[in-house]
Amino acid sequence: MGFFDSLFGRTKIPSGKTDQLFALSTALLDIETRLSTPFAKRAGVVLRTVDNSSYESIEKDVNDVLHLGGKDIPVTARHVDDAEGFRWILLEGEQADDVINAMHLTADLTLQAGYGDSLLAAMFDFGSWYLIYSYRRGTFYPFVPTARRERNEAREFRISETLKPYMPIEKDPERRYALWDPPF
To answer: What is the DSSP string of 73-115?
Structure first.
């Protein structure tokens, strides 16, 4: 933030941090083994919605990169707007590493297009729970929803403690936002 931004009370939303996403690739085997929950091989990028025509070019770029030069990354991408007004880019594939790489490419393309401040979160499906990556904080945290639209905080704590040695975990529970009803 510059001097005049401070003087006039303007705040600048930080751009998304994508570097820590690859921590999931290295920790995936430990997650699946220690928590006995396999990665469902689907994930989503959550974007703050701005001008839809701008996102269409990002969506086209994502699809083009996934099918670049006949060497397809075997991941499908779908684009969905949820009931809360957020845009999701949903990725699904047979290999976990392909899905994680496609997630990183999607985030990088969003940053290159100048929409880094629109990157909110990445959500990875582990069946009965989700691993969420906060682009703003560069940290992961578990989200365990229940059928009554509540959180299983005890299980979230246990998962966090298990994952701490393998990836950057969000320390502040107030920053662990719920992402209800993902459109997977």
So the answer is: -SEEEEEEE-TTS-EEEEEEESSHHHHHHHHHHHHHHHHHTT-
Query: Residue holding tokens 């099918």?
Result: 67
> What are the boundaries of each domain within the chain?
12-175
Task: Kindly tell me the burial class for residue 56, based on how many C-beta atoms sit within 10 Å of its own C-beta (0-12, 13-18, 19 or more).
Answer: exposed
Residues in the chain predicted with pLDDT less than 70, given as ranges, are 1-19, 50-55, 67-72
CA distance 161 to 159: 5
How do strand 130-134 and strand 119-125 relate by DSSP bridges?
A: antiparallel
**CATH 3.30.70: does it fit domain 12-175?**
yes
Pair of tokens at residue 103: 């997630």
Backbone φ and ψ for 79, nearest 5 degrees, come out as -120, 125
Report how far residue 28's alpha carbon sits from residue 91's, in angstroms, rounded to the nearest whole number.
17
Q: How is residue 116 written in tokens? A: 């880094």
